[in-house]
Amino acid sequence: MTAQMKSESQGARWNLARLGSMREAGLIVIILALCIAMSFASPHFLTWGNFRAMLMSFSIEGIVVVGMTILLIVGGIDLSVGSVVAFSMVVSGALFLAGLDPWTASLIGIAVSALIGAVMGFFVTVVGLNHFITSLAAMVIVRGLCLIVTKGTPLSLFTLPPAFKAIGQGSFHGVPYVIIIFVVVVAVFDFLLRRATAFRKVFYTGSNEKAAQYSGIRTKQVKFWVTVLSSTLAGFAGVIYMSRFGAATPTFGAGMELNIIAAAVIGGASLNGGSGTIFGAILGMALLSVVTSSLILLDISVYWQDMIKGCILLAAVSIDHLLHRRKA
Question: Which residues are listed as membrane-spanning (predicted)?
């Protein structure tokens, strides 16, 4: 890069960081306001049982959000995450029932998920398709594979050993292992995204791919490996779900991509690429969880929940579009 390009890049990064911190601060205020309001509306809201349920509800999805956020930053999107989560469960469960130990079966399930990401990355970087079409096709294909492997019947895995079940059902001094794993994953990737040089290439590629290419960044490789990472984290989440529920359901995760994308966009990740943070995406996930919990405690029909989440997503995307148009 030339000195001018470096200066412009640093200025852009500072502006994006400032915008991101403002978005995150705003989300924290909204979440706190909702919590205060709900504490008056329902005596059950500010209880450890309710907060534990909310944390458990979004912790595993939060692992998938991490991969989706990085993919959105690079300028991509993955509609297949729900199908990949289910396929990881199905492959791992089927191998366990075939006689393989659950640990090896789970590693194979995660590896297969990574392979799905590699296939999508190939079609995006080599064939030249965009992420939307590629992941849409993968979503349908992988879901079909789930149904083929299980013949449409959930796999009962009640014979899983206690040590493996502890991942999804156990706790350490009252804190579920699921939440601990979630916090570790978020902390590691948030640090890497903010500090690691390799992950800065994700922002450069998403902000201006041509300029990134001229500066020597192999943007196709960046896109490929980020796509693989997204599917791998989805596969990892699938293994945790299998451990938690003791089953592998071929239809599990249908519609999950809505929550994942909504959380990332609400948290500041742009559908145009080039901006976003892991912390912001997790705050977006937390906001959706608080909204869902509030609707349940207020005894509002479950049929309204998807509509309300869709409205929140539409509002977040509209704000993102207006911000980018104003910046342009």
Answer: 51-74, 81-100, 106-129, 136-154, 174-193, 224-242, 278-297
